[in-house]
Amino acid sequence: MPINQPSNQIKLTNVSIVRLRKGGKRFEIACYKNKVLEYRNGVETDLDNVIQINNVFTNVSKGEVAPKDNLQKCFKTDDLDQIIKEILKKGELQVSEKERTHQIDNIYREIATMVAEKCVNPETKRPYTVTMIEKAMTELHLSVNVNRNTKSQVLEVIKQLQEKKIIPIARAQMRLRITAPIKEKKVKEKLVPMISNIEDESYNDEYELICTIDPGQFRKINDILQSNTNGKGQLELLSLNDTSEGDIKF
Amino acid sequence: MPLVSTTQLIKLQSKVENIRNICILAHVDHGKTTLSDSLLASNGIISTKLAGKVRYLDSREDEQERGITMEASGISLYFNVLRKSLEGQESSDDYLINLIDAPGHVDFSSEVSTASRLCDGALVLVDVVEGVCTQTHAVLRQAWLENVQPVLVLNKIDRLITELKLTPQEAYIHLNKILEQVNAIMGTFFAGDIMEEETRRHEAEKEKLLQQGNEQIEVDNISAELSLEDRDDSKIYFTPDSGNVVFASAIDGWAFRVENFVQFYAAKLGMKENILRKVLWGDYYLEPKTKRLLQHKHLKGRQLKPLFVQLVLENIWSIYDSIIINNNREKIEKIVKTLNLKILPRDMRSKDTRNLLTTIFTQWLPLSSAVLLTVIDQLPSPVVAQPVRLPKMLYPNTDMPEKPANENEKALFSCDFSDTAPIIAYVSKMFAIPSNMLPENRRRQLTAEELRERGKAHRERLRALNGQSEESVSETSSTTSTLTSPESLDESVEKIKVSSQTDEDGEVDQPKTTKETFVGFARLYSGTIRVGQKLYVLGPKYDPTFPDKFCSEITVENLYLMMGRELEALKEVPAGNVFGIGGLEGHILKNGTLSSTKDCKSLAGVSMESAPIVRVALEPAEPSEMGKLTEGLRLLNQADPCVEVLVQETGEHVILTAGEVHLERCLRDLRERFAKIEIQVSPPIVPFRETIVPVPDNQQIKEKDNAQRGLVTLSTTNKYCTIKVRAVPLPQNVTTFLGKNAITIKSILDERQQRNKIETQSIEDEEDTFKDVTIKGNRILEVDEFLDQLEAEFNKASDKEIWKDIVDNIWAFGPKRVGPNLLINHVPNYKRKFSWRKYHQEVNDEVNEEVLSEDNSSKKYELSIRDFVEGIHTGFQLATKSGPLCAEPLMGVAYFLEDFTINTNDEDVDISEIRSKLGGQIITTMRDACNKGFLEWSSRLMLAMYSCDVQATTDTLGRVYGVISRRRGRITSEELKEGTTFFQIFALLPVVESFGFADEIRKRTSGAASPQLIFSGFEMLNEDPFWVPTTEEELEDLGEKSDRENLAKRYMETVRKRKGMFIDKKIVEHAEKQRTLKKK
């Protein structure tokens, strides 16, 4: 039992603890705040800038260092650096404030950028700027979820924006050309409910349909087309989002 | 003093010879509005006491706040001249002066252009202390271009006395210098014009020579004879003895010409008037004893003062001296007595010396009469001016014909206001005024008598309420103040009348309507325009040979007399007048021609001195107010001739303004008048492009593996399919070729889509697009022609092995199917159903054949690349649309699809199921493979560039260079403009660095240089954003972190940050230095 005396005490500030349970034991390391995530995504490479003390603890706040044999038993090595790296990589941690705001900020902006990419102003057929979308999102009182993936959140946001009618907004339409052998033209009946606007169709040597659709329907249309025509139907993506091009002068 | 009703002004409108349309032009803060104030005071619109302080024509709130004029405003003045004819009979002449006060700030030079178009004459003011400034130069040039006769007003002479404390002698030299400067400018215009004419003639002759063969060689000799010296340029210069120079101090309310003193002294000195007139300005001296005139060479070393100093300046100096500098009561009284002025003892006793000064001067040398007389004498009436000015407006770019070509032009040249003459008017700008300011929305017109009654009652009421407002004071004084002209002048101002409406009463109880109405600011050149008439509006592009295009019909709804901030309704306007016209909304955007016949050329557009270059993006603070913003922008666009509004492809609303001050005014207008919402302003989003270059990243990787560089093999997540893609940078010339011919590619694609449409329609369409395109200077190429040219471009490239037979294997272009990136099919055993070249021929047969053959060959359907053609294509499009650096489009990259294998070994798997599952995965795999291949090379960012065109004088040249290089611009050429002192500089400037560029360059050169920016394309920034020092040398030079900032990286990261992408940046730089304060 080591004696806790002021002279051999090291006081740590700015501590954030990373924990890992392994082999039924709990291990902790003392890190600096706001640094662990950076280390994990590779921005910070200097280990000294991440951990406070080059040691593994069973309890950081009490200053209990993990016994060597426990480490050996659980990690199958006695290289402290390797163990620390493993804990850093796999351990659970309290995400500190700056990291969290940074994360949320980034996701928020990413969502806004993606919404702006996917949507248009139906009146002008032009996209909104990202800042406009961000403003509309604040008006929604949207709180982003760090753990859910962005794409599903984007779809959610679009739905909410459309419901609350903060700005006139619609999904940018996809333009497709569907071709099928002429004998299979009956497939049209099945496709029509999913198409938002038929621009052109013809029945020459082949059945051909140029239309705009909601991007969410693409999969379904493809499936129906393929299964109904035995794979002879062709789907050509004319444009991913059908927006008007060029600058307009007033 | 009786008021002049509008009827009197209207009566004057038809006396064309007695109309003068003038504008006041000068550098900013040289006293334009103050001068016009004094002129207004002479008409009793404002009080003489307040002249120069109220700045009546600055009617906007921000104009008053900032103290600069922002919008040109017009006012009609009445002026009566008593003229003694030779026989001694007195005749009085009434004159109507349509005055336009133009702004002086550079940002509003468009207003100067529009104003000078409407006028025949201009008062050009120069502050004698500041001298000739950049805008003086600009307005003189504008006047010259528009053929407007200028009169020079040397203003603020009082500052020479009170601030610079010059002696009269020094002041004389100073004034002379300024005069010389101005004349030098006029000289350069003259010379420049002649040079231009000469070259034009030369060219014409050359052509003639070419036609006729070389029978005449003497032509050159003939034209050489007509060189500079032969032209008479004496008329264009300002000389005091010819009467086109006015000496003035607008703030103290005085002005004079040499003429004034000539008459005064002729009798005294016993000299003939016309002799004295010639000698009063210049190096002439008076021998004190003999009273004889001497020239400089006869002085023989004696210290005599020039006549002008002795007779004119010293008198003025002595008044200032005795009043302002050392207040000497007795001397003042003496002066007043000799000048025969009537000064009220009240004024004499007053402590306010300035007031006394003004009182004395306004009686002795009244500004308004001096200026207005000059205007009447020197500036042409419409009848005189129109024959000179109109040819240039009708035929702006050619030599003008001597004689009118048809009846219409004859009427135009002669300013014919008879009913039979065709109506032709030019609207130079549209301005917005609140609807409740329009006379028809005000209360009914009150007669002057009623008005005064009302005014009195109103004032009494106010007095009773103890809340006497300043305006009413000024009105009282304005109606009572009488100006009598000094007897020393033969021509005298007799009656000065109030013609304005005091309509405050009318407005007070009007409910505030917020609508804006547009009124056209116009000048009628021929005919008489009446309310209710039907006229044609001819757009700037109108051509009488195609009478249906750019032409619409309107009914004249309202006509207005311009009275500064107020408008007076009129029933008709005869030719030669400046007026406001309502009912043009929706027909004229910024300017245009009104005509009663369709057989009339559109009058040439106003030449703008400065194009709008300050570019910002606007957004409403509340996202739901987008509609209001668009509507507001539409109004703003109409109200301001110098604003451009765009909606960009990115959805941004961008406005272009002439400068920062102009921008501020536009924003204020939007916030307070047009849109009435809070607006956020931000620099517009700058586009980038991403590309790769064949340079090896570092020394270790030598060029040996260049052939295999960029090769990536990637499998879909379910391992069914493997894609092998190779990225290769396209040769530069190919990239530019593709960029140029995007239209061609698009038209080929369109053709493919529309091939089944009815032929006639498509032909028509094509013709239309063809027309549009030829205007832009690019031509749509035929498919084969295009491909041949493309092949030729590829053959020029150094690495011919790679590009062999490339054209026939092109699969697609990207992004958006037309961009400068290629997807090339290199899959063995797979031949595309069509190549671009063959496609033009019969395709459908081929397709059918293939389908049939497949049906026959194997019973069991096997998945092949054909099923995923679209997936691959889409993946390529996605990859080229947003590259791996910062999700910006790619440029100049070719992707070779080297191999595509499907490994479905399990027999029992349902094919259709795999197909639908694989479809999506192929897109992402293809995209990822492309991106990975891209990163194998050394990547580069491409910056959007402006080509920048600056004119600068020699002394500001260095500063221009400084600004351009600080913003990472590159000078491409610099040359001296012939016949001028200007340098023409062409430079390339990255758009990212251009925010605030125009303003900076103007500030650094004190406004002498103003750039024009035109988007010119993308240019590579030769710096790898991922570069870090690796070799020993580099590490030694730059350290591990490289001290020098990586510019490409910085650009990349700002874009990534904006898009919320991952940035390689630490949240906390130093872990142990974080603050550990507790949160509250």
Automatic annotation (TrEMBL), chain A:
Residues 109-172 form the Ribosome maturation protein SDO1/SBDS central domain. The keyword Nucleus applies. GO terms for cellular component: cytoplasm; nucleus. It is found in: Cytoplasm; Nucleus. The keyword Transcription regulation does not apply. It holds the Pfam family SBDS_domain_II. Coiled coil: none annotated. Residues 14-100 form the Ribosome maturation protein SDO1/SBDS N-terminal domain. One of its GO terms (biological process) is cytosolic ribosome assembly. InterPro entries: Ribosome_mat_SBDS_N_sf, Sdo1/SBDS, Sdo1/SBDS-like, SDO1/SBDS_C, SDO1/SBDS_central, Sdo1/SBDS_central_sf, SDO1/SBDS_N. Signal peptide: none annotated. Keywords: Cytoplasm, Nucleus, Ribosome biogenesis. Associates with the 60S ribosomal subunit. This is Ribosome maturation protein SDO1. It comes from Rhizophagus irregularis (strain DAOM 197198w) (Glomus intraradices).
TrEMBL record, chain B:
Residues 469-487 have a biased composition (Low complexity). It catalyses: GTP + H2O = GDP + phosphate + H(+). One of its GO terms (biological process) is cytosolic ribosome assembly. Its main location: cytoplasm. Signal peptide: none annotated. GO terms for molecular function: GTP binding; GTPase activity; ribosome binding; translation elongation factor activity. Keywords: Cytoplasm, Elongation factor, GTP-binding, Hydrolase, Nucleotide-binding, Protein biosynthesis, Ribosome biogenesis. One of its GO terms (cellular component) is cytosol. InterPro entries: EFG_II, EFG_III/V, EFG_V-like, EFL1, EFTu-like_2, P-loop_NTPase, Ribosomal_Su5_D2-typ_SF, Ribsml_uS5_D2-typ_fold_subgr. Residues 452-512 are annotated as: Disordered. SUPFAM superfamilies: EF-G C-terminal domain-like (SSF54980), P-loop containing nucleoside triphosphate hydrolases (SSF52540), Ribosomal protein S5 domain 2-like (SSF54211), Translation proteins (SSF50447). It is found in: Cytoplasm. Residues 17-275 form the Tr-type G domain. NCBIfam families: small_GTP. This is Ribosome assembly protein 1. It comes from Rhizophagus irregularis (strain DAOM 181602 / DAOM 197198 / MUCL 43194).
